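ok here's Histidine ammonia-lyase:
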Amino acid sequence: MVTLTGETLTLMELKRILYDKEHVKASLGSMQKAAASRKAVEQIVQKGEVVYGITTGFGKFSDVLINKDDVEALQLHLIHSHACGVGEPFPEIVSRAMIVLRANALLKGFSGVRPLLIENLLKLANAGIHPVIPQQGSLGASGDLAPLSHLALVLIGEGEVFYKGERMPSLQALTKEGIFPVTLTAKEGLALINGTQAMTAMGAVAYLEAEKIAYQAEIIASITLEGLRGIIDAFDEDVHLARGYKEQVEVARRVREYVKGSKLMTKQGELRVQDAYSLRCIPQVHGASWQALNYVKEKLEIEMNAATDNPLIFENGKKVISGGNFHGQPIALAMDFLKIAVAELANISERRIERLVNPQLNDLPPFLSAEPGLQSGAMIMQYCAASLVSENKTLAHPASVDSIPSSANQEDHVSMGTIGARHAYQIIRNVRLVLAIEAICAMQAAEIRGKENMASLTKKMLEEGRKIVAFIKEDRVFSKDIEAMNKWLKENEVMITDQTHPTL
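and the structure:
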C-alpha cells in the first residue's frame, strides 16, 4: 500500500502502483488539509466573493460573474465543454497514473475539493477502473484541460473506462465496484482539470521505460563488444575519472562488470589500436543520456507533488490567488530533453548494428548470414533500425519551442508539454526496437565467435535471449524475432541492481 500525502510520492512508488497494481490510500493529515481547504471554498460561495473559477467563468470569461445558485451547473458545463480530446486513448497505465497524480495534487490542500472527490479517485485506482482519455487536444497550459476533463467525466458517471480488459461506459464499471457518481460543486470541476497530470503521467511512464532500456542498452552493447572483439582499455576507470562525469564513470564500470572474464575482449594494440566511436565512446554517450535522465527524474518528482491548479487557496481562504502553476513549461522542457537523450541511445546502437553486419568493418560473415549471397542474414534488420532512428530524429524536434495563443489571447503562451511527453514515449518504443535488433545481431556475432569465450554475465544474457530468438541458421521472417525480443525487453528488467550483478 502506497500512502499519498501530496508531498512525498516518488517515481519508484508510482512504479509499484502502475506495474505491480499496488493499492493507494491518502494520509489522514492530507485529507484534513483538503477538508479545511474545502471549507474555505464554501465560505467564498456563501459570501458571494468574486474568485476566479468559483464565482466567475473561465479563461476569457473570468470577468463574467456567476450566481451562487449556478455554481454546480458551472462546473458541469466546464467538464462537458472541455472534454473534447481526440485521437487514440492513452495507454491504460498512463490513465492510471493520471488518477493517482491528480489525487496526490488535491491532497496538498490548496484546491478546495471535498475529500469525497479524492476518495473516489483512489477508489478508481484501486478497482482498476481507468478512464478512456484521448491523447490529443492539450496545449499544456491552463493545465491538460481536455485530457483531464475526460478523467473527470468518469467521476460524474459519464464517459468511458477500461475495466478488466474491456472498454465500457463508466457507469457500468462504477456500479460493479459500488462507486457512486458525484455531483461536482463549487470549484471542483476546475480543480480536477486545471493541472499538468496528463503530461506528467505520460512523462513518468516514459521515464520509467527509458530508465529500463538505458540499462538494457549497456548489456546489449557489451555483447556487441564481445562480438566485435572490442578493446577493453577504453573502459578503464582512470579514463573516465579523468573527465569527471559520474554517470560516465558508472556506465564504464557496469560494462567492465558485464565483460569481466571474457576471452573475446582485446587489449589495445592486440588486434587494433582503437575502436570506432560507437564502441569506444559507449560510456561518454550513454553517460550523457543518463545525465539527462537524472534531470528528467528530478523534474518529474517535483511535478508529481506539485499544486498545479488555479486559483490556489491559502491560509484557510484568507488568501486566494490566481496564478500560473498549471503552465507545463518545466515538464515540456524535460520531455524534450528526454526525447533527445533516449534517441541518442538508438543512434549509437544503430551504428553498432552496422559494425556487426558490414563485412568491410569486421571479420564476421557478411551480414551475419549463414550463406552469404544465397541468404541475406541481418542485412534488412539494419535497414529497419536505420528507419527507426530516422523517425526518432523527426519526433525529437522540441515541442516546447512552439506556442499558439488560445482563449481569445488570454492564454497567450502555452507549453505543448503533453505533445512532448507523447513523442518521448513514441521515441522510447522505437529505441527499444532498435535495441532488440542490436541484441539479435550481437548474440549472433558472439555465438559465431564462441559463446564459451564470453563473460559469465553476457553469456547468461545470451542464454536467456536464445529462449526468445533462436540462432540464425537460415533466413526467416525476422519481423517476428524483432517483436519477440522487443516484448522480452519491455517485460523484463536487465540491469545491475546491487552494483555488481545484473538481474536477467
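+1. The first helix runs from residue 11 to 19.
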